[in-house]
Amino acid sequence: DYVNQGILAMSKFRTLVFVLLMLCVVAAHGETVRREAHIGYLYPAGGQQGTVIQIIAGGQFLKGAADVYISGEGVNASVVKYCRINIVKMKEQRKLVQQKLAEVRDKRFKELGITPPRSSARNRAKGKTATPKKTTKPEEKTAAKGEKPAAKKRTVKMPNHPLLVDIDNKSLKELAHIRDILFFPRRMTQPNRQIAESVVIEVTIDPDAKPGNREIRIKTPLGLTNPMVFQVATLPEVRELEPNDKQAYPKIPNMPGIPRSKSLKLPTVLNGQIMPGDVDRFRFDARKGQRLVVAADARALIPYLADAVPGWFQAVVALYDAKGNELVKRTRELLREDPALNYIGNVEGRDLFNGTIDVAVCDGFVGNVMLKVVEGMAGAMLE
């Protein structure tokens, strides 16, 4: 009996060990799956032939990114910097960023021959600069026996944010865009973990690179990421600059005297990013009888959004005159392609309502938007 009981106990023990080992294998496999390097978006998701641009790849587990692979010939890319996107909540860091923005803004004002705002002049008179400084804490003293050593002074540094890369060369509109993204209350939320990391990438597109869609991947210590669409285009490209919800080019607070932005020249590609309830407006010139084609590439860039309902970007493209009157509107059709407008101006006068009209993209979840605005037939552009 003792022998049989011992054999039974040993059998149960082996079974328990086997089950535990299987659970460990399953857990390890699940952990491996969760730690796959992933790209959630590219911005901008394309570029013009013969240009060198910097784009941002947002995703997860991208730390240690070493190389970038792009399908096809004529396009080369390299990693510039890895960043982890964190909301700038620490008071000292926020102050440092604001001082740096003001410093660069004043340089741009000086280049334009414009007197800086009073607040900026006062800060400069007080000797405030945007150089990193140490937080004010009691001087470090030698700890007595049995006492804990005093806390060391910590240096406050600029946040490691992709928008702050090469900040000294930003334009006034770009500075306003950075301020809106970093400090506007609506945007003061921590990004989803799936896109909380980013890699700044420099892309060189040869003049003879074949237009069309490419696949871009990033090499990380965890392996290659998933592919994302990168478009090589023949048209000149511009990026949206916030704020632009109510007007395409509104007056920027604390930046008086900035020359008004000129209307866009067609044809062009407009690169933008959009938040829930956000509206992005762009202004361009048009004339009577001109045929306009406006096509939005949203689902074509990112077909599925995990945190969106129903699971994909639902874009609305609308055409307005300078007085805010809607001329034509087109939303996506369920389970169909991205929206496109084909419009012919039908008003009197040399230009369409004093020469300006607006295009707005609105009502969607976080994602990339690429608007192609051209004169001519839609087929020639969409092929």
Task: Describe, in plain words, how this protein is organized in 3D.
With 383 residues, the protein is α+β, with helices and mostly antiparallel strands. It has a domain at 237-383: Jelly Rolls (Sandwich), CATH 2.60.120.380. The chain is built from five helices and 20 strands. The protein has helices at residues 2-34, 91-112, 118-125, 172-183, 378-382; strands at 38-43, 46-48, 52-60, 67-70, 75-84, 133-134, 155-156, 197-205, 212-220, 223-224, 228-233, 237-239, 268-274, 279-284, 291-297, 316-321, 326-331, 340-344, 357-362, 367-375. The strands form five sheets. Strands 2, 4, 9, 10 and 11 form a five-stranded mixed β-sheet that branches. It has a five-stranded mixed β-sheet with strand order 12-13-20-15-18. It is an enzyme of class 2 (transferase).
TL;DR?
With 383 residues, the protein is α+β, with helices and mostly antiparallel strands. The protein has five helices and 20 strands. It has helices at 2-34, 91-112, 118-125, 172-183, 378-382, and strands at residues 38-43, 46-48, 52-60, 67-70, 75-84, 133-134, 155-156, 197-205, 212-220, 223-224, 228-233, 237-239, 268-274, 279-284, 291-297, 316-321, 326-331, 340-344, 357-362, 367-375.
Radius of gyration: 27 Å
- Terminus-to-terminus distance: 83 Å
User: Mind telling me the CATH class of the domain at 237-383?
Assistant: Mainly Beta
The whole-number mean of residue pLDDT values reads: 73
Q: What is the strand tally?
A: 20
Under the CATH scheme, which architecture of the domain at 237-383 would be assigned? Sandwich
- Biggest pleated sheet: 5 strands, mixed
How would you sum up the global shape? globular
Region (Disordered): 112-152
Enzyme class: transferase
Catalytic activity: a fatty acyl-[ACP] + phosphate = an acyl phosphate + holo-[ACP]
Subunit structure: Homodimer. Probably interacts with PlsY.
